[in-house]
Amino acid sequence: MRHISRLTLSLSAIALACALGASGPARALDEAPKPKVEESAEPKREESKDTKREDKTEKREDKAGAQSEEKQKSARDEKAAAEKKSKADSAAYLRKLAQLIRARSPGATNLGEGSAVIRFRLGASGAPSGVTVVSASTPKHGELARSIVSGLRAPPPPGGSYDGVQSFRFH
Hints:
The chain is α+β, with helices and mostly antiparallel strands. 60% of the residues lie in helices and 16% in strands. The protein contains 4 helices and 3 strands; from the N terminus they run H-H-H-E-E-H-E. It has a 3-stranded antiparallel sheet with strand order 2-1-3, covered by helices on one side. Strand 1 and strand 2 form a beta hairpin.
């Protein structure tokens, strides 16, 4: 067991050394002093000025890029917040609408058990329009469901209008 763990550690150390480029001859070549090339003094000054200008330009571009990224992030955050608020408003509206429909629905009917599905549209005022029976177990169940939704007076929907489908189960 000791031999395996030592072998594993040795192999890991070799792999790490290779990854870091620490092999003997290759490292010796990298660390060897490089010969200096003599150049005139003027080109060096021009290069250093150009380098300084490039550095300043790069810093400005980096700063502008960072500001642009911050603006984009801020815009994304605002958009996400607006979408979250919109979803919350829609969910609250749907809860209120369901509450109003339940309040208008009878607890029991003399029609017997049955069901109906109604499609409707609420306009900007909250008044229903285009109330149609999609399906019903009997025509009377469909008409009862239609009258429940037709008489509904809801608050104005977020976004100006709401298209809905409501199912009913009568007992």
